[in-house]
Specification:
Elements: H1 5-14, E1 16-22, E2 28-31, E3 34-37, H2 45-53, H3 58-67, E4 69-76, E5 80-89, E6 92-101, H4 107-110, H5 114-118, E7 125-130, H6 137-151, E8 155-160, E9 173-178, H7 186-193, E10 200-203, H8 209-220, E11 224-229, H9 234-243, H10 250-260, E12 261-271, E13 278-286, H11 289-296, H12 303-308, H13 318-328, H14 333-339
Parallel strand pairs: 7-11, 7-12, 8-9, 8-10, 10-11
Antiparallel strand pairs: 1-2, 1-6, 2-3, 4-5, 5-6, 12-13
């Protein structure tokens, strides 16, 4: 057993999502969104590197020594998988580990709306799950892929950096590819996937022009493509994709995206007040003909009102989802106010509304 495994065991016992190991500091874990120190000695750089290198593949050590950054996945049998990121900082080495549960929860177990499950049965198109880092995008996507894996008879390819949730082939054949290990880049893997007879492709991150372009193209040519972006709303997601392209290509990509897009799910995590754990508030936009038309005509500023009126299709705004949680007593008024888009709606719930100088 590696020395670091004791920290992972502690994480699991405490229900922590992340472990932070930093040279010159005590270890810390993130519980329900907040950092808490672990009662342990201050970590010296050489001791920390020795601890980290005990679980690090040789080729990843080489990359870290050369570049100062590396990502990979590590598994403790019987406990969980961990997404690891090593980086160099002023006082030496540092590492952050995110726990990836070994058991994949269903959309129902996660408390997600029924329309999320329906996304797994789409025949083709592009589905984007977006939100800030640590908002649960991977967990939501894992639930959707698991639903497809159980209910369809297809070929699923996932392209990730690193591989997070591991899906055993059920009714589908599932192939996992890790960038840097099984393929050089997301772009190379996605281009290759088009020749690998996929029905469903999961792209861990749409991070550059070429990857986005290939994902949109694959969705428009009969494949079902899932991907993630670090955007906070459906409208901003559409804008981000279009703005990646040169100005002379933007009208063309608007049209292609309007045809290929099926749904955007933007989510934010909240700490539960009524019990331990967290819950995800979701903005859901389904690409109805009216939504497609707004994208095609560059009227994305009208998408929020279209989502507001599209409840019969399973659509909901982020603020409505947050309000529902607040009225159930699941989340605090302060956190609801902080993470809402339209803060005016939530000011009446605050005992002492803050003065936000950025909104004056």
């Amino acid at each position: 057993m590696a020395q670091i495994d004791a920290f992972f065991k502690l994480m699991n016992e405490q229900g922590a999502s992340d472990l932070h190991l930093v040279s010159g500091q005590q270890p810390a874990i993130r519980i329900r969104g907040e950092m808490e120190r672990v009662k342990y000695d201050t970590l010296e750089n050489e001791d920390l590197k020795k601890m980290l290198y005990e679980i690090t593949p040789e080729h990843k050590i080489k990359i870290f020594e050369e570049t100062g950054d590396v990502d990979f996945a590590y598994e403790v049998p019987g406990l969980a998988r961990y997404r690891a990121n090593y980086f160099q900082q002023k006082y030496g080495s540092a590492a952050v580990f995110r726990e990836i549960p070994s058991k994949i929860l269903t959309a129902e177990q996660l408390g997600l709306p029924p329309v999320i499950t329906k996304l797994a049965s789409l025949p083709r198109g592009l589905v984007l799950v977006t939100g800030p880092t640590g908002s649960g995008k991977s967990t939501t996507l894992a639930a959707i892929i698991d639903e497809a894996n159980r209910t369809r008879k297809d070929h699923i390819i996932t392209i990730e950096d690193p591989i997070e949730f591991v899906h055993e082939s059920k009714s589908c054949i599932v192939n996992h590819r890790e960038v840097g290990l099984h393929t050089k880049t997301f772009t190379a893997a996605l281009r290759g996937a088009l020749r690998e007879d996929p029905d469903i492709s999961l792209v861990g991150e749409l991070r550059d022009l070429e990857t986005i372009s290939l994902a949109v193209e694959a969705a428009s040519t009969g494949h079902l493509v899932f991907g993630t972006l670090h955007t906070t709303s459906a409208a901003k997601t559409v804008d981000r994709i279009i703005e990646v392209f040169p100005s002379e290509e933007q009208s063309q990509i608007r049209s292609t995206l309007a045809d290929g897009l099926r749904a955007v799910v933007a989510q934010v995590l909240f700490k539960r007040m009524d019990k331990s754990g967290r819950c995800a508030a979701l903005e859901i936009m389904i690409a109805t003909p009216a939504v497609r038309n707004l994208i095609r005509e560059a009227k994305t500023f009208q998408l929020p009102s279209m989502i507001q009126t599209g409840k019969k299709y399973g659509m909901q705004t982020l603020d409505d989802s947050i309000m529902a949680f607040l009225q159930k007593g699941w989340i605090s008024p302060d956190e609801a106010y902080t993470k809402a888009n339209d803060k005016v709606k939530f000011r009446p719930f605050l005992k002492a509304p803050p003065v936000d100088f950025t909104e004056v």
